């Protein structure tokens, strides 16, 4: 969202998840489960993949602005955790914000939770997209830092940081994405055990967590059928 002094609010959402957002919000937002009414709102900006945001946004009922302000933010579609999941990258801060797509467990041992509308196949490819994006930006920053100034000083290259929902903030992006890739591969390859099962939202959810002493501080909780689908897709059924 973007709040303006004039009282205008812009609500940004992923264009890839438009059908999901505009249909059955009571169920998709789990409002029916908690007995609360779904809020009413209107998305004013359906962001395209890798779109760099500029203000003011163009609307059908408004005049096209003669000049725009670059917000320095790029939207990335990260379908998988949910159909409308997105990440956004702050170019000035070299900081990537990924929402609920992944995170470390933290002190509470919170797993990465996939709702029934999730898709682990899409998620794996979305995370690969983020990994390539981060590696590219790191390489670009490293190349720029190799140039010496007039006094012979070489700039220490900056690296992309990642912040996730819940408890993981400002960690090295390339490192946590590489960690996620290795962990998710082991889960799909049946190298990580199921540590709990429960009926939730009308279907069987499983939690996959490593139990060895040297373990990745991540775990996944998802409908069993989503894991069966991704294992079949990658030939691990």
Indicate the mean pLDDT: 91
* Main β sheet profile: 6 strands, mixed
Q: Helicity range of the residues? A: 25-40%
**What's the CATH architecture?**
4-Layer Sandwich
End-to-end separation: 41 Å
Strand order, biggest sheet? 5-6-7-8-10-11
Task: Give the tally of β-strands.
Answer: 14
Query: What is the overall silhouette?
Result: flat
Summed up, the helix count is 6
CATH topology: Metallo-beta-lactamase, Chain A
- Structural domains: how many: 1
Specify the structural class.
alpha+beta
Determine the strand fraction and express it as a percent band.
15-25%
Low-confidence stretches: none
Structure description:
By secondary structure, the chain is α+β, with helices and mostly antiparallel strands. It has one domain: Metallo-beta-lactamase, Chain A (4-Layer Sandwich). Helices cover 27% and strands 24% of the residues. The protein has six helices and 14 strands. It has helices spanning 18-22, 25-28, 31-34, 120-145, 173-188, 224-233; strands spanning 2-3, 9-10, 12-14, 45-47, 51-55, 69-77, 86-90, 95-97, 112-113, 161-163, 171-172, 194-200, 203-209, 219-223. A six-stranded mixed sheet has the order 5-6-7-8-10-11. It has a four-stranded mixed sheet with strand order 9-14-13-12. Strands 1-2 form a two-stranded antiparallel ribbon. Helix 4 packs antiparallel against helix 5 (173-188). The model has no long low-confidence stretch (mean pLDDT 91).
């Amino acid at each position: 969202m973007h709040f303006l002094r004039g009282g205008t609010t812009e609500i940004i959402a992923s264009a890839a998840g438009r059908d999901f957002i505009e249909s059955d919000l009571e169920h998709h937002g789990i409002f029916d489960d908690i007995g609360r009414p779904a809020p009413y709102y209107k998305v004013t900006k359906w962001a395209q993949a890798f779109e760099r945001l500029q203000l003011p946004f163009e609307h059908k009922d408004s005049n096209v602005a003669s000049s725009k302000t670059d917000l320095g933010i790029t939207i990335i579609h990260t379908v998988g955790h949910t159909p409308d999941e997105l990440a956004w990258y702050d170019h000035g801060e070299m900081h990537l914000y990924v929402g609920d797509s992944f995170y470390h467990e933290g002190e509470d041992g919170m797993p990465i939770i996939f709702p029934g509308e999730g898709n682990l196949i899409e998620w794996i490819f979305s995370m690969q997209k983020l990994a390539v994006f981060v590696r590219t930006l790191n390489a670009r920053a490293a190349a720029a830092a190799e140039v010496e100034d007039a006094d012979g000083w070489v700039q220490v290259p900056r690296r992309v940081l990642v912040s996730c929902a819940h408890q993981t903030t400002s960690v090295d992006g390339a490192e946590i994405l590489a960690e996620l890739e290795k962990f998710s591969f082991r889960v799909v390859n049946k190298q990580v055990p199921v540590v709990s099962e429960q009926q939730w939202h009308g279907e069987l959810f499983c939690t996959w967590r490593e139990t060895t002493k040297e373990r990745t501080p991540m775990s996944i909780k998802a409908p069993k059928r989503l894991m069966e689908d991704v294992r079949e897709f990658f030939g691990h059924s």
